[in-house]
Write a structure and sequence with these properties.
Layout (H helix, E strand, L loop, with lengths): L3 H11 L1 H8 L17 H15 L8 H25 L6 H18 L1
Helix pairs in contact: 1-2
């Protein structure tokens, strides 16, 4: 993989105007080399914002106070549903974690024995 400084010089050779333009922007805003390759922040942020926008879709056209009150109501209802779901659970772990642990245990059993 080419180092960032090498890429800078290649850009400068190909298009000096583009190089000057890029220098005006903070490097963390445009250079992918500075970030962990495993992270996909742009997708996560986009999915979160799309999910939130869909969740508040019916409130978006409301006046500010109505919108805020609607958000409060939606959030309270969501928290109440989660609380009731949590009260129905037994044990120290949530069901999804138990399933994953059981899968891991089974795969380890086949390796060990």
């Amino acid at each position: 993989m080419l180092q960032a400084s090498t890429l800078h010089y290649k850009i400068k050779e190909l298009k000096p105007v583009a190089y000057d333009w890029l220098l005006k922007i903070p490097a963390e805003m445009w250079s992918r080399h500075a970030f962990d390759k495993r992270l996909k922040n742009d997708h996560v942020t986009n999915n979160i914002s799309e999910s939130f926008n869909h969740w508040v879709e019916d409130l978006r056209s409301k006046p500010v106070l109505t919108l805020v009150d609607g958000l409060r109501t939606k959030l309270m209802c969501r928290l109440q549903k989660r609380k009731l779901k949590g009260l129905k659970m037994s044990g120290d772990l949530v069901p999804n974690v138990v399933k994953e642990l059981n899968k891991s245990r089974k795969s380890l059993e086949s390796v060990i024995f």
